[in-house]
Amino acid sequence: MRVAIPLFDRFTALDAVGPYEVLKFLPGAEVVFVAAEPGPVRDMDGWLTLAATAAFADVDSCDVLLVPGGPGARALLADEPLLGWIRRMHEASTWTTSVCTGALLLGAAGLLDGLAATTHWGATDVLESFGATYTPERVVFQGKIVTAAGVSAGIDMALALADRLAGPTVAQAVQLVIEYDPRPPFDSGSPAKAPQEVRDLVARGLR
Question: Ranges for the DJ-1/PfpI domain (predicted)?
């Protein structure tokens, strides 16, 4: 079972690495990080790099396509080499998935028109410009397309996918291995819950 994760400059690290930590445990899983060309790819801050081991031209099919997001995703909404590759992977995939603003790339590739989908709450207008209907859920299944909300929701999505791929016992075993038992110290993980001063700080930028 090949899992293909495309990388691009200024991706969000946890969008890719969170689901990777889940899906790599599935029976027969082979995870391939893919980019325009093999080599290191910088995350959104440039402080962390992941190594792509294959180029888009080298990967002609996959069972699971997992598209991360990040600031770099918005810069690629008209990048036909990447969008065309996403379309080709989707044609034969069992599951086509995204995390955070990776959904915008699925939308730009024409895969979300008429579907319900989720993404980071700050990108809902862009998502809907591609014909999708934004749904404020952590994970949204629409046929074989699965979208996850912002960043940490990718782990939830990957576990839900593991259930469908390998069954609930394996999925729960993976959850136990990574000790995914979240108990956040604050209840401010969505705009609906965060206090106004927190939303204001995010609007101004954290740095």
Answer: 1-162
- What's the confidence (pLDDT) of residue 205? 84
Vertex 20, ends 5 and 110: CA angle to 5°? 35
- Catalytic residue, chosen from 22, 66, 73, 100, is 100
- Write out the H or E segment, with its range, that includes residue 203: helix 196-204
pLDDT, one tens digit per residue, over 19-53 is: 999 999 999 999 999 999 999 999 999 999 999 99
Between the two ends of the chain, the Cα-to-Cα distance in Å is: 40
The crossing angle, in degrees rounded to 10, of helices 168-177 and 153-166 is 140
Instruction: Give the domains, in start order, of the chain with CATH numbers.
Output: 2-182 (3.40.50.880)
Question: What is the Cα–Cα distance from 70 to 77, expressed in whole angstroms?
Answer: 12
* Distance (Å) of CA 108 to CA 23, 82, 150, 190: 25, 10, 18, 25
Q: How many CA atoms lie within 13 A of 97 on its CB side?
A: 33
Catalytic, 62? Answer: no
